[in-house]
Amino acid sequence: MDREKIDATKYYSDVVEIMGRQGLLLGSFDAEGKANLMTIGWGAIGRIWGIPVWIVMVRPSRYTFQCIEHSGCFTVNVPQDGLESACALCGSRSGREINKFLECKLTEQRAATVLAPTVGECSVVYECQVVHSNDILPEKLSGEILTGAYVDGDYHRVYFGKILLAAAAPDAAARLRQQ
Ligand SMILES: Cc1cc2nc3c(=O)[nH]c(=O)nc-3n(C[C@H](O)[C@H](O)[C@H](O)COP(=O)(O)O)c2cc1C
Predict the structure, then answer these.
(1) Which fold is adopted by the domain 4-171?
(2) Which residues contact 132 (CB under 8 A, 6 or more apart)?
(3) Residue nearest to atom 18 of ligand 1 (CA)
């Protein structure tokens, strides 16, 4: 899909709404160069240190955790047009066992600015370089969140990705809103 550069916040409310409803697709390469996708439901776009950032949260148990630790970058791909089943699969199966691009019949494309894959079928894509990461500290978490989200531990690592490129297809607004 042809995409052109956009301001990182252009589709902010659509992206946050889709993230909460079906999830977004986080792309990364493993150490062997195999592309992986993982569905994320938690994250934020913002501006920190004077730069646009995506903040994503990845549990250490995910294959994606190893991938981002190795590569230091990731992409965030916004699904639409009936990609619900791809989000369900990428959110329930691990890249340790399967190639999710092949399983979901998605087109793997190389990002322009980072060593990470993008999803050809997604009309909005962000390319991000990790500039900071930290771990959720249980002793600093409210009890309600601790018992709700971390029954088994597996505390997220929080990645702050500098958005090097945000790009969208010319008809992205219509695609995002027709769901
Ligand atoms: C809607 C949805 C949202 C999710 N959000 C996250 C998330 O923000 N962080 C996370 O670590 N796992 C999240 N998951 C779970 C991972 O997507 C899932 O464990 C996935 O299989 C991990 O793939 P991987 O092992 O290839 O990295 C979510 C799953 C779904 C279905």
Answers:
(1) Pnp Oxidase; Chain A (2.30.110)
(2) 159, 160
(3) 91
